[in-house]
Amino acid sequence: MDTENTRTERDRSSATDRPDPVPAAEPGTAAGTVEEGPRSRRFPGLARVAGLLGGTWRRSALLAVVCLGAVLLVSRFVVQPFHIPSGSMEPTLRTGDRVLVNKLVYGPDAEPERGDLIVFDGTGSFVREGAAANPVQEAVRGAFAAVGLAEPAETDFVKRVIGVGGDRVVCCDKEGRITVNGTALDERYLHPGDAPSDVAFDIVVRPGTLWVMGDHRSDSRDSRDHLGDPGGGMVPVENVIGRADWIAWPAGRWGSLEGTDAFARVPDAPEGSAPDAPGSWSGGGPAPSTAPGSPGAPGVPSPGGGAADGRPHG
Predict the structure, then answer these.
(1) For residue 204, which of 13, 64, 71, 312 sits 20 to 30 Å off, Cα-Cα?
(2) Strand 168-171 to strand 179-180: parallel, antiparallel, or no bridges (unpaired)?
(3) Reported pTM
(4) 141: helix, coil or strand?
(5) What contacts 199, CB < 8 A, 6 or more positions away?
(6) Which compartments is it annotated to reside in (predicted)?
(7) Where in the sequence numbering do the catalytic residues fall?
(8) C-beta separation of 101 from 78 below 8 A
(9) Please, is 246 exposed, middle or buried when counting C-beta atoms within 10 Å of its C-beta (0-12, 13-18, 19+)?
(10) CA separation (Å) from 216 to 34, 193, 221, 295, 304?
């Protein structure tokens, strides 16, 4: 019997069947256990997907910030959405409408004209100077208002220009119509059933200012309600934000805001006709609106409305 050959075969088979040796434990791990690697090593496909999603979210966030910045810039300098919060401009503009205000239409060589629908800051003319608001709240509100998602500032108004610097605006003639420089207006844009004005006035518009009124005269607090104020109801041209040119919302009212021919026959004011004092009247006698005890005189409330309540009106 060849004992050497037998032992050699047994040794070879024993080596083959012997299990692999357990690797030495890493420091800090229990003996006889194998430390698992991170999932990214065990599942390389998952790591690639996670990296891709992370990059997508970062790119999306950056794109959103860039788009928001572009919208705010356009709103600040070119076209701004403006939410109509009241019915003072009906039927031309309705409560809830969102109009686009053209900020490029006016400049050093182009001022508001009679009949224009303007948005303006009424601080100092329609609204008294007040305490400063919380800057953070104002910044947030301003950002939302800039894209039409919030109501405008309480000092912002939208009205129609009736008189520009030098114009004499009178209410009313024998037929109850407002006249500008002696020419009666055919105001077909007025709210049905409204009179041109229930408040008598006779004013000459100071240079650099505007006389403005709402189309819904019985529901509009406008220049008539500030005849006795220091500014005489006049809105400085420099406070004009822009002209409302389009209705952007609701969808059924999309379109441009048409102009009016009500002022087509109104002549320009004669040179030197504008007074120096705001709201003054130069007509050879006491103005009906500013004579003592008359509607609109200092301390005398005007029929059909009082001082502006601080809310933007249409």
Answers:
(1) 312
(2) antiparallel
(3) 0.66
(4) helix
(5) 171, 224, 289, 295, 296, 302, 303, 304, 305
(6) Cell membrane; Membrane
(7) 88, 159
(8) no
(9) middle
(10) 84, 9, 10, 20, 12
